[in-house]
Specification:
Pfam families: Glyoxalase. The chain is of the alpha/beta class. The protein has one domain: 2,3-Dihydroxybiphenyl 1,2-Dioxygenase, domain 1 (Roll). It contains 2 helices and 8 strands.
Length: 132
């Protein structure tokens, strides 16, 4: 008799990342970014549009991700950059993209408009312009 086959492609997989301060992360994601967030057993769940959830967990020896861990597609990057800047978000300016990055931190080189920022734990995120 053959054992049941594991079909991970049929599970509701989700992603996660670490932070060094759950309460600071919760305040940032809820108040600054305006996301719906829940907390259970010391873990944050970021409830994203389309029924997608992302887990944020505390890690004592947290090291910030050096790559983009979460992308937020928006219709108007410039408008969102202005709104988030007013809420205290600082947009990153990377030396390798300096020639194509404007004063607001919007990369206007090849590909879609994109602006990178960090959460309180130093993890890199972006807003990226998409038409739909």
């Amino acid at each position: 008799m053959e054992a049941d086959t594991v079909k991970l492609g049929e599970t509701q997989a989700f992603s996660g990342f670490s932070v060094n301060d759950i309460q600071a992360a919760r305040k940032f994601y809820e108040e600054t970014l305006g996301l719906k967030v829940s907390e259970e057993n010391g873990l944050l769940t970021l409830h994203l549009a389309g029924g997608r959830d992302v887990l944020a967990y505390s890690k004592e020896d947290h090291v910030p991700a050096t790559f983009t861990i979460l992308n937020f597609p928006v219709r108007d990057v410039e408008k969102v950059v202005d709104e988030l800047t007013a809420r205290g978000v600082r947009f990153e300016r990377y030396p390798q993209f300096a020639a194509d990055t404007d004063a607001k931190g919007i990369f206007r080189g090849e590909g879609p408009l994109i602006a990178w920022f960090k959460d309180p734990a130093g993890n890199v995120m972006s807003i990226i312009q998409q038409e739909s």
